[in-house]
Design goal:
Length: about 550
């Protein structure tokens, strides 16, 4: 029997015209900007008209530490929104847009899988509505204006050795990490070292995801620090008068994208900061709009809860006053066995001792989430090879730790495989929760904030940082940036900075290699261990398998 691929399932779905999906949410046709028949942006004026409506309930979906075996966090997020609709609750799913880099690199697409997907899957994973291209253009316009300003006499006295603004592109291309620009004769400008980051690591991406409207967007773009003078005083994007033109390029990209799931549940797919090098949440504007339009909003935060959920709470919630009404922690038997030391090749065999050992990873994430004062339910994303004994072992482990673990079969059955989880989530959101809090207060010193995350979430003993880094943090505090939250850039595969240390290690050290100030987005990035803000392609890139078939359809994207 032919096992249907995600893309075949997606193509066979009975899609509704996007105007009908809008109607489900009470969005008039005139307020939708359609991109073809199955995608649309929601107008800024309509979003503004919703401000005084009450909010629905916010459900955060996060996961254990990811492994190459797969967790299915997006799939569960999508499945849960469908499941809520199936039990009669109005819901919307809010996820991030996919970056082209990983699509052609390691990971393939990012729109769910099996019978829990957001469609049109090919478009969402490729150019979609052009948001990432707009972000790339706006970012690189600023880069061009910096070098142009230096070329025409440098009135602002930019120190060319201290230009902090890199260029970006939405592709994994390691050869562009460190480059020299402006070679050739005098007409090409002044040679200097430069480099590229991937689009999803750009501060412009973070700003788009954290701005509440176009005015806020322009102010934040203007506050970005792009370079320094010889005396170390900062130069802002507004000094170069780039913020206006950048906002113009981003005007449409700021509008959330509306699509649908396989079961025609409305889906907002907007913004896409990486979760290991950026803050890993979809846009505030999409989440807040969804909360005004429906009873339940299901959103995911990238990678494991040590990254995605911590950033969702300490960056996104802090900046908006949002708080999750319930948290779903996704785990798979496969990933838990890998966290317990099983190699990928041997995952098909039942292995209860390794599973028990790997459950420590689940326990650690559970404890961390509860320390924020949040109610948590565990979703066991089912794979066909999971044995009854393995599923029971995870449920028993959860019960010992005072949590419920519910088997979820949305990948195979769509919403029908997830109704139990949906009912449990509804019950959790109806309990009052009063003890939600952030991990650290705004006024804590920046280095102390980094230490708090490292010690309380990663269970490290210490943070290793050169005096140069500590001095830099102190200087930012003196300049008035001490209240900002921290965005940790570290590997997603481990609580430590070593991607090969699975499970729940403690007593390790977190080396901070570099700190970057995102003054416009409003956070400080701490780059830990070997993490790269421009990934490379793997030895066998996914791009090698992607092509058009005889019918002109895309093959190999999933």
């Amino acid at each position: 029997m032919h096992h249907q691929t995600d893309i075949e399932i997606a193509r066979a779905a009975a899609k509704k015209p996007i105007q009908e999906i809008g109607e489900q949410l009470g969005i008039p046709h005139s307020e939708l900007l359609p991109f073809g028949h199955d995608k649309a942006k929601i107008s800024a004026s309509f979003i503004e008209s919703l401000q005084n409506r009450p909010n629905g309930k916010l459900i955060l979906v996060t996961a254990i530490s990811p492994t190459p075996a797969g967790e299915g966090k997006t799939t569960t997020t999508v499945g849960l929104a469908d499941g809520l609709q199936a039990i009669g609750k109005k819901s919307v799913v809010c996820i991030r847009e996919a970056s082209l880099g990983p699509c052609f690199g390691m990971k393939g697409g990012a729109a769910g899988g099996g019978y829990a997907q957001v469609i049109p899957m090919e478009d969402i994973n490729l150019h979609f509505t052009g948001d990432f291209h707009a972000i790339t253009s706006a970012h690189n316009l600023l880069a061009a204006m910096i070098d142009n300003h230096i070329y025409w006499g440098n009135k602002l006295e930019i120190d060319p050795r201290r230009v902090a603004w890199k260029r970006i592109m939405d592709m994994n291309d390691r050869s562009l990490r460190e480059i020299v620009i402006s070679l050739g004769d005098a007409t090409n400008g002044f040679p200097r070292q430069a480099g590229f980051d991937i689009t999803v690591a750009s501060e412009v991406m973070a700003i788009l995801c954290l701005s509440k409207d176009l005015k806020d967007l322009q102010e934040r773009l203007g506050r970005m620090i792009v370079a320094y003078r010889r005396d170390h005083s900062p130069i802002y994007a507004s000094d170069l008068k780039a913020d206006g033109a950048m906002t113009v390029l981003l005007q449409q990209a700021m509008q959330p994208n509306l699509v649908q799931t396989l079961e025609n549940t409305p889906a907002f797919v907007h913004g896409g900061p990486f979760a290991n090098i950026a803050h890993g949440c979809n846009s505030i504007i999409a989440t807040q709009t969804a909360l005004k339009l429906t009873d339940y909003v299901v959103t995911e935060a990238g990678f494991g809860a040590d990254l995605g959920a911590e950033k969702f709470i300490d960056i996104k919630c802090r900046k908006t006053g949002l708080k999750p009404d319930a948290v779903v922690l996704v785990a798979t038997v496969r990933a838990l066995k890998m966290n317990g030391g099983v190699t990928k090749e041997n995952l098909g065999q039942e292995n209860l001792p390794a599973l028990q050992k790997g459950c420590a990873n689940l326990g650690r994430h559970l404890e961390n989430l509860r320390n924020f004062g949040l109610p948590v339910v565990i979703a066991i994303n089912h794979f066909s090879a999971d044995t009854e004994a393995e599923i029971q072992a995870v449920q028993a482990y959860a019960a010992e730790h005072g949590a419920q673990a519910i088997l979820c079969q949305h990948w195979a059955k769509g919403s029908a495989g997830l109704t139990e989880l949906a009912k449990q989530v509804v019950a959790m959101t109806e309990q009052p929760h009063h003890d939600f809090h952030y991990l650290y207060p705004d006024h804590l010193a920046l280095f102390k904030k980094i230490e708090t995350i490292a010690k309380q979430i990663y269970r490290a003993d210490e943070v290793l940082a050169d005096q140069k880094i500590r001095d830099q943090l102190k200087r930012w505090e003196e300049q008035g940036y001490g209240h900002l939250p921290i965005c940790m850039a570290k590997t997603q595969y481990s609580f430590t900075t070593d991607p090969d240390r699975r499970g729940a290690p403690s007593g390790h050290s977190v080396p901070v290699r570099e700190v970057r100030l995102s003054a416009g987005a409003g956070f400080i990035v701490a780059i830990c261990g070997e993490i790269m803000t421009m990934p490379g392609l793997p030895k066998l890139p996914a791009a090698e398998q992607i092509h058009l078939n005889e019918q002109g359809e895309i093959e190999g994207l999933f």
